[in-house]
Amino acid sequence: xxxxxxxxxxxxxxxxxxxxxxxxxxxxxxxxxxxxxxxxxxxxxxxxxxxxxxxxxxxxxxxxxxxxxxxxxxxxxxxxxxxxxxxxxxxxxxxxxxxxxxxxxxxxxxxxxxxxxxxxxxxxxxxxxxxxxxxxxxxxxxxxxxxxxxxxxxxxxxxxxxxxxxxx
Length: 168
Known about the structure:
Helix content is 68%, strand content 2%. By secondary structure, it is an all-alpha fold. A two-stranded antiparallel sheet has the order 1-2. Helix 1 runs parallel beside helix 3 (81-117), helix 2 runs antiparallel to helix 3 (81-117) and helix 2 runs parallel beside helix 4. The longest helix has 37 residues, at 81-117.
């Protein structure tokens, strides 16, 4: 009798890495508060700085939605199911790191702009824009696995990315 496999080590490792990266956003925000905020959180900056951060967040979201989950479909081969699963996870991991870089871009831009306009508000806006974007687009959850698996399996070859493969 076949039973479904436990989540692969690749998923656990990728989730751990993503949790560490996501945790860096609030941690850096807190550290930058000590650096940039003189009184509480300070005065609101000139309007162009928050707009620039939100524009970067919008561009990152659009790119992740339109191209972030595209990948060439799996080709038929005589590889074992375990090899196909490993290759699928490797491609998903590479795609996830690309989306991580895009989702963290609003926060990184906000940090640079905060020093230009001398306002902690810009960092706060960048963190508030980047963290939900990161959790939606880059977190290796079921939604993102299914979207990537759909691209991998577009020619009908199973990727074993969602649900794993059956163990004998």
